[in-house]
Amino acid sequence: MDIRLVVLDMAGTTVADDGLVERAFEAAARTLGVEPGGAEHARMLAHVRATMGESKISVFRHLFGEEAAAQRANLAFEAAYHDLVEDGHCAALPGAAETIERLRTDGRRVVLTTGFSRATQDRILAALGWQDIADLSLCPADAGRGRPYPDLALTALLRTGTESVRQIAVAGDTGYDMLTGTRAGAAVVAGVLTGAHDEERLRADGATHVLGGIGELPGVFL
């Protein structure tokens, strides 16, 4: 395979999630008066789980409708997530840093992507000391639209000067990551089982490979 660009998701793929998204969502829901234990909270949490990987502001627009309410929820989510990161609840998944280093040593460009805002993405990168670990990092605001659209992968291609979509590999832990890869025309769309969705969901949304963890990705290209 002539893979020259590897687009990697963060939370659940290279960074441990450990329920942080759900905990931050709970804080956001409370801001809008939705308390845990009720049917409405359960319905919203189910949607959050199903749409892991999607731009968070898009998720809140779906859940709360009005733009003002969605923005309030998004701000509360970000504040809660930032507090969790600052409290030390942020760690790289085993082998992630080594995998990124190996990919770059082999001459491939690596771009880290997320469904979070730039502010949240930067907090995570700083907490891990990953500011310079990849060639580039992208959030939905950088690309125009977040997952499941192809924009993040295609923006990575444009920003790195990669010649063809068939030289792209996309890896993530959610069905939305898989849809991003397939819609972008990536040659490799790898799902990893360290995050939100199971093998059935990953394959249904287009995974060409399903891996136990991100450390297995370089072997796909051999």
From TrEMBL:
Origin: domain of life: Bacteria
A Pfam match is: Hydrolase
Q: Name the UniProt key words of this record, in alphabetical order.
A: Hydrolase
Query: Which SUPFAM superfamilies does the record match to this protein?
Result: HAD-like
- Spell out the GO cellular component terms annotated for this protein, sorted alphabetically and separated by semicolons: cytosol
The UniProt entry's GO biological process terms, in alphabetical order, are: DNA repair
InterPro entries reported for this sequence: HAD-like_hydrolase_sf, HAD-like_sf, HAD_sf, PhnX-like
GO MF entries: phosphoglycolate phosphatase activity
NCBIfam families linked? PhnX-like
Q: Which PANTHER family match?
A: PHOSPHOGLYCOLATE PHOSPHATASE, PHOSPHONOACETALDEHYDE HYDROLASE
- What name appears for this protein in its UniProt entry? Phosphonatase-like hydrolase
Species in which this protein is naturally found: Kitasatospora camelliae
